[in-house]
Structure prediction request, 328 residues.
Amino acid sequence: MDLPHYLAYLLEFAERRGISRSQLISDQLLTERQAVLAEAIGNQAFALLEFEIHHRIGNPQSGLDFVESMPLSVLGNAGSVMIASSNLRELIENLLSYHRLVVPQWRFHLQEHADGSATLRCDPPQVMPAHLRTICIEMMLNIWRNVSLFVLARVPVGVEWLFEFPEPTHSARHRHLFGNKVSYDRDMNGIYVSAADLFEPLHTACATTLCVSQNICRDTLEQVELGRSLAGSVRRLLLKQGPDLSASDIASALHMSERTLRRRLSDEKVSFQQILDDIRSTLAEQYLKETTLGLSQIAEHLGFSDLSSFRKFCKRRFDPLPDQYRPD
Prediction:
């Protein structure tokens, strides 16, 4: 998932329906830092933000509306892998390999049949209200519809769309989007794909793009695993709660002494100060380029005791200096 791109699209979608960014920040569903640096939002918090926006919109078709105008580029490198696949069978295999980069809380399972056809089961996160679960399921299958339309230049004819919920009042729109092969009250959500559709060559297939994007996705998944290290935990806390936290604050949040924290980080060949400086650099650049905050405000957000300390930090890290971006 291209998280910054997806967040920008989500906030734009909300704005068009009367839910402003400032309102979401005021209601503590989003922070200024997260609005600037999407990576500061954890998966669970991001899902809650998305669900709350759809809940406030109050339209049972909001999930379909959201996906209808969503650019496929928000799927990031995992989307590039799927689009560059040679056929739908390979596309599904790539989804199974890299879906954690797009929808980490979803579960997918492929059941292959004797006649060469297959059923892709799509299981959403379990804990959510029923009406939001329905919206979530519609979003996922509509993304599949859009990807299929893009890579085949048509909606596959040998596909049946399977929904766990009863036929909704807007089922006519389902038939408009998915065709007549739509089933409700099933024991699963997913897509049945005929053998003919599974192995039809995709007009977007590109072996070079596929190879490059797969390598990027593998590296990204490795980084996700590394993110489970102590250094990754420290980084996530600093991003979520702010780089004004001390090593003692972080150690307390991770239920260890500061001495243990520093020793374990040293074992991972990194120091607390290195992690803090990297995050401050990233956030400083984002604030300078994408907000109208003054230098004193930025210095305060980043946990510097005064503007002079912030300028000294920037002198070591940036060229040009922050004063050349804007005055204090």
Summary: DSSP finds 17 helices and five strands in the chain. The radius of gyration is 23 Å.
